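Researcher: Please translate sequence to structure tokens.
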Amino acid sequence: MLLVGARCRWRDGAAESNAAVYDADGKLLRKGVLGDGIADVQTTLSGDIWVSYFDEGVYGNFGWGETDNPAPIGSPGLIRFGADLAPAWRYPYDGEFGAISDCYALNVTGNEAWAYYYTDFPIVRVRAGAVAGWPTQVSGAHALVVDGDRVALVGGYGGQRRRVVTGNIKGETLSVGRPSRLVMPGGRPVPRGAAILGRGSELHVVVGTAWLKVGFEELASG
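Model: Translation complete:
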């Protein structure tokens, strides 16, 4: 089991440990540092740990990036760590789709990682260390669902916080349909405090003690 804290301070010449791995009996196996400003963490069956970062993790806070202190671990915006909690791959700053200032959504499916990020809000896919991407005109979404060459972006700014936009990838082009709206069973509004996360082809919505899953077909049907 992996436990991760979102915040991590650099102080007195050292970083706080904010990641720990336990076995099935609760025995601590290892501790490590994944950096500050963590937005999301998703793992693979092979033991990879994908970590995305929001702006404070990218640009620095809590001592990271200050004079004589190290640069933020999360400055690439997206990092793959190994099972030993050591960085194994970092998102390129000079990639075709621009640097990550704030990773709004992460989706790890199989051994692929998909991300959607500020400032230009492309969707990118990382497969075997190679990055492919598609520009979007959709801003402010906070969850990404992936089903083969189909994608869905959920959320937005202001009154669009429950917007759903689905699209199809064909080569270098992403075509999207008309937006729909995410609702609870019975058509009730999704509560403002709900946690919404995409993993593979499913959207997970956690409201209080209730955990709901929505498949891609349901999202696409509106």
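Researcher: Any highlights?
Model: The longest strand covers residues 102-109.
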